[in-house]
């Protein structure tokens, strides 16, 4: 099976003060995504920023960014409904009304760094139901073992549709699971046998755990949302080097890249 590579160019936390190459405005994000597509990425995981570079769920900013990207390349769009810790859940959830092919679904509230990531159970279920009504494929972001159990409850309640369930195993966020091989292998063992998944390793363990995830049969994600560095003390000069590194890693392991057609068939079955 081919490997899907997702580019995550921006994220909700880092700023240009952390890495000046971080894209925050629609044209910058579109440039980063188009470059990643040319390098081999087939999915773009999108966060948006306002004119002051703050995380936003403004639908006009989101729509403008998506339109610029789609004018540039045929990469598949996945919207984050996480958006940012200070953005109310109702505004975050409203992004699905743009009807992207895919969007993230966070099953649980949690401590996230020095903040609180609020995902109340009833609101999560309403969002899951709305995504199901709109035909939007959810990517379930799980930061701890109990998050997986909650996702399986959503599945059993019929809120995730009939297709194979798709997970992102997020490691390295303060408040969630540490970025260790043991935590990754434990989570992979507990996934449903037919699950589609990728590891998202935050920070210094990004490359090693991406390699382990590929070896275990997962997909991969790359970009400045997950790590600002190419190596110890070496800021990445953009998203492209991180994507190119992941593409090279994938190929060096004898794996093939999924193009957009193969990715659509896998992640968005009709």
TrEMBL record:
Coiled coil segments of this chain: none
Pfam families tied to this protein: BKACE
InterPro entries xref list: Aldolase_TIM, BKACE
GO molecular function: 3-keto-5-aminohexanoate cleavage activity; metal ion binding
Keywords: Metal-binding, Transferase, Zinc
Needed co-factor(s): Zn(2+)
Record keyword Metal-binding present: yes
Record PANTHER family: 3-KETO-5-AMINOHEXANOATE CLEAVAGE ENZYME, 3-KETO-5-AMINOHEXANOATE CLEAVAGE ENZYME-RELATED
Name of the protein in question: 3-keto-5-aminohexanoate cleavage protein
Species the sequence originates in: Actinomadura geliboluensis
């Amino acid at each position: 099976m081919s490997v899907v590579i997702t580019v995550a160019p921006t994220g909700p936390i880092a700023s240009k003060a952390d890495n000046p190459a971080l894209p925050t405005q629609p044209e910058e994000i579109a440039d980063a995504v188009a470059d990643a597509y040319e390098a081999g990425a087939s999915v773009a995981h999108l966060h948006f920023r306002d004119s002051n570079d703050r995380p936003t769920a403004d639908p006009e900013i989101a729509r403008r960014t998506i339109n610029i990207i789609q004018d540039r390349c045929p990469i598949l769009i996945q919207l984050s409904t996480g958006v940012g810790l200070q953005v109310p859940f109702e505004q975050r959830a409203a992004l699905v009304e743009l009807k992207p092919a895919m969007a993230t679904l966070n099953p649980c509230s949690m401590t996230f760094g020095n903040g609180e990531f609020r995902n109340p159970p009833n609101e999560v279920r309403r969002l899951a139901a709305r995504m199901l009504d709109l035909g939007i494929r959810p990517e379930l972001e799980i930061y701890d073992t109990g998050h997986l159990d909650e996702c399986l409850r959503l599945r059993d309640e019929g809120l995730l549709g009939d297709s194979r369930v798709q997970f992102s195993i997020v490691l390295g966020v303060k408040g969630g699971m540490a970025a260790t091989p043991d935590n990754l292998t434990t989570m992979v063992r507990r996934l449903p046998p037919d699950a589609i998944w990728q590891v998202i390793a935050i920070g210094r363990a990004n490359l090693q755990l991406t390699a382990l995830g590929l070896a275990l049969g997962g997909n991969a994600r790359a970009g400045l949302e997950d790590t600002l560095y190419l190596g110890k003390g070496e800021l990445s000069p953009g998203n492209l080097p991180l994507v190119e590194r992941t593409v090279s890693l994938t190929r060096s392991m004898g794996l093939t890249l999924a193009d957009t057609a193969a990715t659509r068939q896998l992640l968005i079955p009709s």
